[in-house]
Design a protein that fits this description.
Blueprint (H helix, E strand, L loop, with lengths): L1 E9 L8 E10 L2 E7 H7 L4 E4 L4 E4 L1 E6 L19 H13 L4 H18 L1 E6 L10 H12 L2 E4 L9 H21 L4 E3 L1 E5 L5 H11 L5 E5 L3 H11 L3 H7 L8 E4 L5 H9 L3 E4 L1 H7 L6 H6 L4 E3 L8 H16 L6 H17 L17 E4 L13 H14 L5 E7 L2 E7 L17 E5 L1 E5 L3 E6 L5 E4 L4 E4 L2 E6 L7
Parallel strand pairs: 1-4, 1-5, 6-7, 7-8, 8-9, 10-11, 11-12, 12-13, 13-14
Antiparallel strand pairs: 1-2, 2-3, 5-15, 16-17, 18-19, 20-23, 21-22
Amino acid sequence: MNLVINGRLITRDEGGKGYYEHGAVAYEGTTITEVGEENVLRAKYPQANLIDAKGGVIMPAFINAHTHIYSALARGLSIVGNNPTNFYEVLDGTWWAIDRKLTLAGTRASADALYMDCIKQGVTTIFDHHASYAEIPGSLHTIAASAKKFGIRSCLCYEVSDRDGEEKCLQAIQENADFITECERNRDPMLAAMFGGHALFTISDKTFDRMVEANNGRTGYHIHVSEGMNDVYDSLQNYGRRPVQRLHDHGILGDKTILGHCIHVNPAEIELIQNTHTMVVNNPESNMSNAVGVCPVLPLSKAGILLGLGTDAWTNDMIESLKAALCVQRLNACLPNVAWCEVTGMLFKNNAKIGAKYFPDELGVLKAGAAADMIVIDIFVPVSPSGTGNTFNSLIHSFFASKFFAPAKNIFATWEASIVLISNCLPSLINHTDALNKNVDLINLHSGKLFYFVFYGFHQIFRNRKNAYTVSHYHMKINGNLIIFVQCDINTMI
């Protein structure tokens, strides 16, 4: 039995008490046993292993409803001669140029990097949408192996596209089908499968028919929809109907399908999404960076559509994405009093509902029987006292302030089973270092000119303290708290 103590507790339990000023969480294995007042649980479980939250906020871990593992080692990458002026050029000159050179070794390295960053950011569940057209077969199984290694719950799919010819397209379809079969056979509660597709302007009707046949109704689809106006123009010019209608005609929509972005959808398409109970995921920072527009979060929410929050290729930081979503929605609406409930609901409620479509464990809530996925976040600014009716809102703004305006800090994470604890660590307190170097392959990328992508050294640094904690799924004993960080050294050479 383990007991997380000494923290403010946000449960997100709509059927119970939502907030404890002095709360605690008892868990065993990967499942929560009980939540409540610290003094009560300490008396009830006197033999429990105590985990000190150090006055931070204990809350459910984050879920990322749309991300791209293939981008994890490419953030900030500069490709000589690539100067995109529109969204298609961003795709063709950057992302497709990268994934065409991404081998299984590159996929493995990218997955390791993203999962480590997930741990750092308090994300324990992801919905990934992968592309690695240099070497397609085995890609999802490679990512799954990394997910198991780091203990991150993952729903995976492969990005089907016609952009690189029929052979690659058929390989991508087969990769989805094989991984779906593997998930059906093994029933791992930490792994799930969807059927991935890039976007409608790179998928022909023939390919959609092949995808539907290979899937055979076994799972939902994960596809980019109307991210740029080129997607809309292509559907209208070549198929005589808008993207969402085209998806509906092929049987792609449904209650287990995720439509990424949906920026340029009209009222009729919103109604069709709602009527088919299809899910949508907003990725605000990616949309702003690519200059493609703003997702109509307010109309989608008003229509009752299950609308989640993702990061796409931009970050793994869900609080950062939450802040961006709130600000851009208010800017887009020209109203300073909108979107708070919608965007917080995306992250704290809807992402858990999306997770429930694919995973057996109850996520996004701290209560008896739910998954023991929790984070502890340090707060650096005063918050409203409890009993004001505004505690949660105040804490969210404290997260914003802590992450963006607080003095620089090192973040360390310790994890046990499904628990992730995030706190501060001063470098001066580190008195013992044990580095574990992770071998990585050199990935050769080619986009017009040859350049080499040289990436990270993975170090685990241990700080000596009195009590030993058990960390990871591998029962590794350490003295003190485990510090994780990723060093990325990216060199571009002509």
